[in-house]
């Protein structure tokens, strides 16, 4: 957990093993019943090598990354992400972040989540951490 918000500061990386269970559980938890997130045969018939993670699971993992770093009082104000390379079972996604801007107790963090084939997610998160400033 950080004690100050400093523009340019790097957040420590977070490695997330991408398992079939994580992919399927995330899809079910977010009520995304698209077959490409739980049925490997159907995913392959649609051109994917296997099931792959949905954006809602990715969004939750990005949120977790930020709140794990900034602590239990952190409030996510805005999460703006884009998906790139799919997260398939057996890979590892590594989330990294850098504080781009600070305004009082609010920071904008640039986040990248990369896997073995490229950037899975890129974007920014605006987070307020009450009582913590630059």
Give keywords:
single chain; 134 residues; alpha+beta; 5-stranded antiparallel sheet; 3 helices; 37% strand
Describe this structure in words.
- The chain is α+β, with helices and mostly antiparallel strands and 134 residues long.
- It contains three helices and five strands; from the N terminus they run E-H-H-H-E-E-E-E.
- It has helices spanning 20-29, 40-45, 55-70, and strands at 10-17, 75-83, 92-103, 106-115, 118-128.
- A hairpin with a 2-residue loop joins strand 3 (92-103) and strand 4 (106-115).
- It starts with 9 loop residues before the first strand and ends in a 6-residue tail after the last strand.
- The model has no long low-confidence stretch (mean pLDDT 95).
The Rg value, from CA coordinates, equals: 16 Å
Identify the overall geometry: elongated
Order of helices and strands: EHHHEEEE
Number of strands: 5
Question: Strands, helices and their partners?
Answer:
Blueprint: E1 10-17, H1 20-29, H2 40-45, H3 55-70, E2 75-83, E3 92-103, E4 106-115, E5 118-128
Antiparallel strand pairs: 1-3, 2-5, 3-4, 4-5
Task: Describe this structure in a few short sentences.
The protein has 134 residues and is of the alpha+beta class. The chain contains 3 helices and 5 strands; from the N terminus they run βαααββββ.
């Amino acid at each position: 957990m950080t004690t100050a918000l400093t523009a340019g500061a790097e957040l420590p990386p977070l490695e997330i093993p991408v398992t079939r269970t994580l992919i399927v559980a995330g899809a079910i938890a977010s009520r995304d019943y698209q077959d490409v997130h739980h049925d490997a045969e159907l995913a392959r018939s649609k051109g994917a090598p296997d099931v792959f993670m949905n954006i809602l699971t990715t969004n939750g993992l990005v949120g977790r990354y930020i709140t794990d770093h900034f602590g239990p009082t952190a409030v996510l104000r805005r999460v703006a992400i884009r998906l790139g390379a799919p997260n398939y079972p057996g890979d590892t996604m590594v989330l990294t972040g850098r504080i781009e801007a600070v305004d009082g107790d609010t920071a904008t963090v640039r986040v990248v989540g990369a896997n073995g084939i490229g950037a899975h997610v890129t974007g920014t998160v605006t987070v307020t951490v009450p009582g913590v400033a630059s």
